[in-house]
Amino acid sequence: MAPSSNAVSPLMPRSPSNMNANLSPSKAKSLAMRKSIPKPPLPPAPSPSHRQPADVDMAEKMNEEISSKYVKGKKLGEGTYAIVYKGHLRSDPTKLVAIKKFKVDPSQQREGLNVDTIREIKYLQEISHPSIVALLDVFSSKDQNINMVIEYFPNGNLEELIRDKSVSYGAADVKAWMGMLCRAIYYCHSNFILHRDIKPNNLLIAADGEVKLADFGLARSFGDPRYQMTSAVITLWYRPPELLFGARQYSGAIDIWSIGMVFAELLIRRPYAAADVANQEVLATGGGTVAQLDKICEAVGTPNEENWPGVSKLKDYFDLDKKIPVRDKTFYMQMFPTAGSVGVDLLMAMLKLDPRKRVTARGALEHVWWTIDPRPTSKENLPKQGGGDSKMGASEAAAPGFVVDESKFKGVAKKLDFGAAR
Fold it and tell me: Where does the record place the region Disordered (predicted)?
């Protein structure tokens, strides 16, 4: 027998029309009456305080197991957001760590963790690279504060080394540090992660000489070029012009600009394009945009439609008073003689005004500069700056922290699920 033209496929969803097609009038009326009766509300979802005792006990046990692995020693430094302690493994006192305890600000308590900290923990748990700081553990202390255990860096950061005139270094050392940074960012970009805060202060120097990228509090996953992100990222002196003009859609080119500024700073031992803004709080919060763009005009050239098609369409674009042509190679050679002709080529490729023309992280690593003399210094022979404990504490305590609602985290262990943090 041929199938009825009114037959409903078992693969099709059951719509109200085909579900009730064969009902008698009386059954249809009865069904309509039942539908008019409101359903009782669903019981509320159990709150964290209603978790089963076994779950609470397991979480607390995991947390105790992690925290008991470490012995917290003297305080190394204290900042607005965190206190940094020197520590070591209980099982091996020679294995040093830094324990970063985040402060709780009662006036800013909120549900859960601040998004910056969620990002930092999330990304440091997901990635592993020789030139990226290693997150060893996360646990809550007895006072319910969150503690992050990271590698111990006795030699401070690259910013301190650059400023210390008692430390001398040359082109081979710069090439080694730049190689570590470029490899770290290539790894991040290959995993669709933007760092969004590259600067010498976030490049920590390990005991073996390796420079490691730290502070992933502003990091962000990327992939869809249409997705809009905030332009209020990257410390002002290292922020690219597209962000200063309010771009909301951007790529890894923003990190490359920052790397170029670090490269220039290593060569001349001072920030290359630094707005004269004395108030550090203004710098940290993204103020001084006009002053910073003026410095970029002087250092690289004035952005316009000729050298950067489409720039005038950016949300916060304005016509700059300074009209300086894009700097040529002769200018860069005079500014950065230590880099040599080939090194200057790479620097200029990183500091293109148009982000679409900037070299990629992979392109930077494939540049011929790495293969010519002088070859990069081995990390064991790189110059190091002393200072030890005090420098480690100052570097980490100064990093932005987060606010924790103390009542929410009585058993935080390393395997928390931060997969939703984007």
Answer: 1-55, 375-397
Provide the domain count of the chain: 2
Minimal CA–CA distance to 416: which of 188, 17, 112? 112
CA distance 183 to 362: 8
For residues 336 and 366, membership in a common domain is answered with: yes
> 311 or 142: whose pLDDT is higher?
311
Same domain, 295 and 319: yes
**CATH number, residue 294:** 1.10.510.10
Detail the residues annotated as belonging to a binding site.
76-84, 100-101
Identify the CATH number of the domain in which residue 84 sits: 3.30.200.20
| 88-115 per-position pLDDT tens digit | 999 999 999 999 887 765 555 555 556 7
- Can you give the pTM of this predicted structure? 0.76
Domain assignment of residue 144, given as a range:
55-153+396-408
Q: How far apart are CA 55 and CA 41, in angstroms?
A: 27
pLDDT tens column, 327-347: 999 999 999 999 999 999 999
The Cα–Cα gap between 260 and 232 comes to 19
Annotated binding-site members for ATP: 76-84, 100-101
